[in-house]
Amino acid sequence: MMKDITIGQYFPGNSVIHRMDPRMKLVLTFLYIIVIFVCKNFYSLGAMVFALVLMVLFSQIPVKTILKSVKPIFIIIVFTAILNVLYTTNGTILFEWKFIHISTGGIYTAVFMVIRIISLVVASSLLTYTTSPTLITDAIERLLSPLKFMRNSVHTIAMMMTIALRFIPTLIEEFDKITSAQKARGADLETGTLVERAKALIPIFIPLFITSFRRAYELAYAMECRCYHGGEGRTRMKQMKLHGFDVVGLVFMVVVTAGVVSLNIVFPHLI
Amino acid sequence: MEEILKFDNVSFSYDEITEDTSRTEYAIRNVSLSIKTGEYVAVLGHNGSGKSTFAKLCNGILVPDEGQVLVNGLSTHNPSDDETENLEHIMKIRKDVGMVFQNPDNQIVATIVEEDVAFGPENLGVDPLEIRKRVDESLKAVGMYEYRGHEPHKLSGGQKQRVAIAGILAMQPRCLVLDESTAMLDPRGRREVMNTVRKLHDDLGMTVVFITHFMDEAVTADRVVVMDKGHVIMDGTPKEVFKNAERLREVGLDVPQATEFSIELSKIGLNVPTDTLNTDECVEALSALLEE
Ligand SMILES: Nc1ncnc2c1ncn2[C@@H]1O[C@H](COP(=O)(O)OP(=O)(O)OP(=O)(O)O)[C@@H](O)[C@H]1O
Ligand SMILES: [Mg+2]
């Protein structure tokens, strides 16, 4: 039941985007997200969408998969759209009823916000689709490693993130198993008041916690057996190297940013 | 042949050792044992007989309260008071004695198969190109090379366990300790793991310590060690050990079906050897009997 949740799902591949340096991808995605918020009108936003579409095409990830990433936040998108339609009242009024005013301005803003959110989600999904979680955490570790005074804690946090990502599917599976087991014993999870249903979850979460502790112990043993001793003296199989296309990516992003800023200046209005 | 692993009168207790040793509960008591390079040793024992404790003593996860464990001549006790020196020492030991546990889920660290296999050599500070080579070789050795880009949670139990073995192989150990690594698997997964371990032993000459409570898995070993209440009570070839069906039952163990069958036959007066280990030997003995 909870298996469909995709958190940082990775699709192995061999496209340019896959092969880009994870550090560069991380930085560029970050930059993209910032620039998306800098956009003030449809022209600059259009440029961003164009850039994103280009990236998606280069990544060779099927469009269907990309669209799936938007599905979980569908409700948020609808909600944002409705709020924006209702609260913006400039432009010509199209429809009026009691306290509801729908104006062209409201619709434009709503569309603008929706495009913005979708681009945001697609851009970050593109990062996780084309980069394995270990590489992402690894990239974060490497990007932050110049901060010498906290290098060890950076490694520890990156390791924790890797392990957390690794165990999410395992724990979800376990959750499903325990739920079925408790249901088989007559646990009623679907009916009753909210409080009752919350209480019914207790016999599921307690075993889940207990097994998690046991897992933690065993994993720690297994890691020690494989000579894990923190970040000191550790090497990496996957070296991170900047390639030609990483530089191309950076230049492209800088050009897009410059374009967005100038479009913002040239067109002061939303549309 | 040289000894890779030597237990020298080892005792270990999870409790605090007090003055009055008669009251301490030992998980391992006065065990002396040595395992030679290239041997395939099966360790049998009932629940709580100290098998896992034995395994953890092999690579310094636990250190003996009395006596010492030698890996390649190195004691698993800390050699000095200096932390970095101790760390280097224990890494040398753990690199040589690789350990595979029971639950495949709880020993895979990374989210991609090949990244998990790389974990050990990365910790050892091996050169990246060399790690790549080792990862490919280890995955090929366990027959999981095609799965190198997969996510571990999408593999079957047997496949996960083979990935775990590859993760150990990549450290290039001299000895492999498997603590009931087949216990959570279905028959097919068990066979996969057994065959893999067998192949590593036969082709690469890997020393194997195989802890199990499945008798049929112990039959193919060169040597069987039986533990009970922290003691080693039997140690010999499978034939020597399984002949003592009575004694094995006393400590809560079965004998392989074929052995049991021929023991029963000899009880009713038939002249069959009581040390048959598998169906083939049993059939052979019976047809010899029929020809007479
Ligand atoms: N962490 C621990 N703390 C205290 N006592 C322990 C601990 N682990 C094991 N023991 C005790 O040590 C004894 C030997 O346990 P051990 O786990 O070595 O047995 P085992 O042969 O591996 O059993 P099993 O077949 O169930 O895995 C048991 O009596 C057990 O209760
Ligand atoms: Mg055990």
Question: How are the SSEs placed, and which strands pair?
Answer:
The complex is a heterodimer of chains A (271) and B (292).
Chain A: H1 16-19, H2 22-38, H3 42-59, H4 63-70, H5 74-87, E1 93-97, E2 100-103, H6 104-130, H7 133-144, H8 151-184, H9 194-225, H10 244-266
Antiparallel strand pairs in A: 1-2
Helix pairs in contact in A: 2-6, 2-10, 3-6, 3-10, 4-6, 5-6, 7-8, 8-9
Chain B: E1 3-12, E2 28-36, E3 40-45, H1 51-58, E4 66-71, E5 74-75, H2 83-96, E6 97-100, H3 113-124, H4 128-141, H5 157-169, E7 175-179, H6 187-204, E8 207-212, H7 215-218, E9 223-228, E10 231-236, H8 238-242, H9 245-250, H10 257-267, H11 279-291
Parallel strand pairs in B: 3-8, 3-9, 6-7, 7-8
Antiparallel strand pairs in B: 1-2, 1-4, 4-5, 9-10
Helix pairs in contact in B: 3-4, 3-5, 4-5, 5-6
Magnesium ion is lined by residues 51-52, 179-180 of chain B.
How would you characterize the overall build of this protein?
- The complex is a heterodimer of chains A (271) and B (292).
- Chain A has 271 residues and is mainly alpha-helical.
- Chain A has one domain.
- Chain A has 10 helices and 2 strands, in the order αααααββααααα.
- Chain A has a two-stranded antiparallel sheet with strand order 1-2.
- The two termini of chain A are 44 Å apart.
- Chain B is an alpha/beta fold.
- Chain B is 40% helix and 21% strand.
- In chain B, the strands form 2 sheets. In chain B, strands 6-7-8-3-9-10 form a 6-stranded mixed β-sheet, with helices on both faces. A 4-stranded antiparallel β-sheet of chain B has the order 2-1-4-5, with helices on one face.
- In chain B, a hairpin with a 2-residue loop joins strand 4 and strand 5.
- In chain B, helix 3 crosses helix 4, helix 4 crosses helix 5 and helix 5 packs parallel to helix 6.
- The longest helix of chain B has 18 residues.
- The model of chain B has no long low-confidence stretch (mean pLDDT 89).
- At the A-B interface, helix 8 and helix 9 of A face helix 2, helix 3, helix 4 and helix 5 of B.
- Magnesium ion binds next to helix 1 of chain B.
